[in-house]
From TrEMBL:
It catalyses: L-glutamyl-[protein] + S-adenosyl-L-methionine = [protein]-L-glutamate 5-O-methyl ester + S-adenosyl-L-homocysteine. It is an enzyme of class 2 (transferase). Its EC number is 2.1.1.80. This is protein-glutamate O-methyltransferase. One of its GO terms (biological process) is methylation.
Length: 284
């Protein structure tokens, strides 16, 4: 029969499969797949199962875990993780940077002779967050041309990092960028269908994109001025959040700031940060 597959597929996720995938994902990247996530995991693994033409989710899992190249395991992690992001997400963080943090940072840096502003977008997804940071920093520092901006942008997922490096977004995704900044930092790309925009070279030049699993070693040698780790820790359990938040503290400059996502507070976590305002914490 034309268009019919000859094998039957079983998209059932057994409790054993769910326990196995939860354990492997937790050990690898800290994502905590509690029982409430079972249906989501089933649906996403069923998709990979179909793409890889496996007969059942169990069969798919053994295939992904056996694949020595690690490629299918990466795709499994991609399938499980959530990459939702947008330009200028949580505007109050960008307002805080412009109105409070950067003016005093620049004064301090001028006094110390340090000419670089260093930031990290940890869990940067498809790039909207680091590009929003680059736009903000470059436009705020336009009257301080002696400063260089260096943004490290990392994610565990190579799929989203490829999109981030390409830096081309449809019109509806760049809608949150204020008109004047859009005009200055986004370039209309030739396209047949939907209007597309490419980020300007000057933005790309201050961002280094790299793959990094936050649960592993970090190649960061120079203390950072601020870290955006937003809407990432929400997927981790408290002990993992606590370890991460304390590692962030250690790699910040004194006075450096950690920004978390709107639903991620440090309540219930042992840490050394000073609370500034909801989701903004400063190193003492
Ligand atoms: C919901 S997105 C947040 C994107 C952006 N920070 C924002 O707030 O718009 C979460 C990102 O965290 C990444 N992520 C999850 N676990 C990670 C880990 N262990 N190491 C690095 N990135 C991770 C995911 O791949 C995903 O792109």
């Amino acid at each position: 029969m034309v268009g019919c597959t000859t094998y039957s597929s079983d998209a059932n996720l057994t409790d054993d499969d769910f326990r196995q995938v939860s354990r492997v994902i937790y050990e690898h990247c800290g994502i905590n797949l509690h029982d409430g996530k079972k249906e989501l995991v089933r649906a996403r693994l069923a998709k990979r199962m179909r793409v890889t033409k496996r007969r059942s989710i169990s069969d798919y899992l053994s295939y992904a875990l056996r694949d020595h190249s690690g490629k299918e395991f990466s795709l499994l992690v991609d399938a499980i993780s959530t990459n939702l992001t947008s330009f200028f997400r949580e505007q109050k963080h960008f307002d805080f940077l412009c109105d409070e943090f950067l003016p005093s940072l620049i004064t301090k840096k001028r006094a110390s002779g340090d000419k670089v502003v260093r930031a990290w977008s940890a869990g940067c997804s498809s790039g909207e967050e680091p590009y929003s940071l680059a736009i903000t920093l470059l436009s705020e520092l336009k009257n301080a041309p002696e400063f260089q901006v260096k943004i490290l942008a990392t994610d565990i997922s190579t799929t989203v990092l490829d999109r981030a490096r390409t830096g081309i977004y449809p019109e509806k995704r760049v809608a949150p960028v204020p008109a004047e900044l859009k005009h200055r930092y986004l370039i209309r790309e030739k396209s047949d269908g939907e209007k597309m925009f490419r980020v300007a070279k000057i933005l790309r030049e201050c961002i280094y994109f790299g793959q990094l699993n936050l649960m592993q070693e970090w190649p960061i040698k120079v203390p950072l001025d601020f870290i955006f780790c937003r809407n990432v820790m929400i997927y981790f359990d408290k002990p993992t959040q606590e370890r991460l938040v304390n590692r962030y503290y250690d790699i910040l400059q004194p006075g450096g700031v950690l920004f978390t996502g709107h639903s991620e507070s440090l309540t219930g976590i042992k840490h050394r940060f000073r609370y500034v305002q909801p989701t903004i914490y400063a190193k003492v």
